[in-house]
């Protein structure tokens, strides 16, 4: 028996909430969120390498992920 963690429940609720408010299927949101996070991680590593920044400086706040995802969905064409 596996019980979902609070993080998983919060994440699912967040995706469901965005899905309803933006009228986008949750699977599409989930897929694009994963793609966006991959790009954000690559960008963070490059910035840390070239500008000697710290990981704490390269993270988004919780409320910024929604804005970033909305922007990403508007510019992603693949």
Helix count, per DSSP?
3
* Derived structural class: mainly alpha
Q: Compute the CA-based radius of gyration.
A: 15 Å
Major beta-sheet overview: none
Along the chain, the helix and strand elements come as HHH
Approximate shape = globular
Q: How much helical structure, as a percent, in the residues? A: over 70%
- Domain count: the total is 1
**Beta-strand level of the residues, as a percent range?**
under 5%
Low-pLDDT segments, ≥5 res = none
Q: Distance N terminus to C terminus?
A: 38 Å
Mean of all residue-level pLDDT scores: 86
By DSSP, the count of extended strands is 0
What this model shows, in words?
It is built from three helices and no strands. It is mainly α and 78 residues long. It has one domain (6-75). Helix 2 (26-51) packs across helix 3. It is globular and about 40 Å long. It starts with 5 loop residues before the first helix and ends with a helix. The model has no long low-confidence stretch (mean pLDDT 86).
Provide the fold topology.
Elements lengths: L5 H17 L3 H26 L10 H14 L3
Helix pairs in contact: 2-3
Sum this structure up briefly.
The protein is an all-alpha fold and 78 residues long. The chain has helices at residues 6-22, 26-51, 62-75.
Key phrases:
78 residues; mainly alpha; 0% strand
